[in-house]
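Model it.
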Amino acid sequence: MRQRRPSWQTVITTSTALVLAAATLTACGGAAPASKPSVNAAASFEGKGPINYVSSRDASGAAQKSIDEWNATHPDELVTFIELPDSADQQRQQLIQNAQIKSDTFGVLNLDVVWTSEFAANKWILPLPGDKLSVDKMIPATVGAATYRDTLYGAPYYTDGALFYYRTDLLAAAGVAAPPKTWDEMKSACKAVLALPEAAGMSCYAGQFDKNEGLTVNFTEAVASAGGTVVDAEGKPTVDTAEAKAGLSTLVDGFKDGLFPSDAITYQEEQGRRAFQDGKVVFLRNWPFLYSSLSATDGSSQVAGKFNVASIPGTSGQGVSTLGGRSLAVSPFTANKATALEFITFFTSQEQALKRLALSSRAPVYAALYEDPAVVAKRPFFPALLQSVNNAQPRPKVVQYGATTKAIQEEAYAALTGKKDTDTALADMQAKLTELAAK
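Modeled.
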């Protein structure tokens, strides 16, 4: 039975108490980290009946297919899909407001992996019994991203890792036998490629350098690929190190030395896609969702059949991708927690992940699907993506993530635009992050 999918506006409008209470709340919870939850979480999962699944929009329709299948066999435990705004910041705000007034409107939450620590620490989601989920079959990094203080709080739904897109035709013409694995190799490859007549007017490389979340991702990857970290395992800032300086300097020098196009300072994911797809850059760091657009044979892509993917480069070898993705969590305020747990167990199963691959390009969390010949035949980038995800690290796992990413963006952007030198930008970033860690 297919349920009509209400928008978040409809739900909020029809819930007067939620609107009035949310108006007095801030979008960011500032509670201190919660104590480590009990690992015996199963005892708290009681109550069966209808629940709401709240998520960002899924244009593919794959999520609704899974929900429809559940609803067909659970007529007394129907799941309704509530859509949140497209903006990740607005999604987070609505989820926090709902939690702060302890509303039961949202039952199962679709969370960005970077929100796990914040939501877990503030007790806005419940610890999950790992034995009820197929975590032993999932890519370890995806399970780690859904974990806070050694306790699982999310059921990994899909994942994401950076890919290094490169022009196979131009590398071959320049006599470059393999895609570069280091920044120095990339510089050498670019020098050879850009000397070709057919590469006239092209630039070497593009990432995402506009002052938004993409910059946090690119900065974090550059630091990790140089052997550093942004915060340590305890959440203590660590950008006052030689490794962090090497990572940021790589990006700063890219603009100074002309490796990056000058307008790349405004690039988000979409601008980078267009630059590579229109033949303006030789190399591109971006996400897997670009692959189908770049491969289009309708004339919209100038690089169809002329590119491939690899892992992003690092300082001395393969680089370290930032781990993206989503997980499903259970609200402690829903009355039907047993249904919520059973639904996410069903929804995040390998069987459902395989079925959704028929409609969606989102990367599954099960390693076996990346090695399935039928799957790889349709998604030839999957082996490279699996390598990227296996080597990936999460963005800073901190409770104050919103303020943390803002501080990273401000200081990294100041260095890239030349408003601050690298040492000053990192010193200021360290000070800001230290202050946030103390809250």
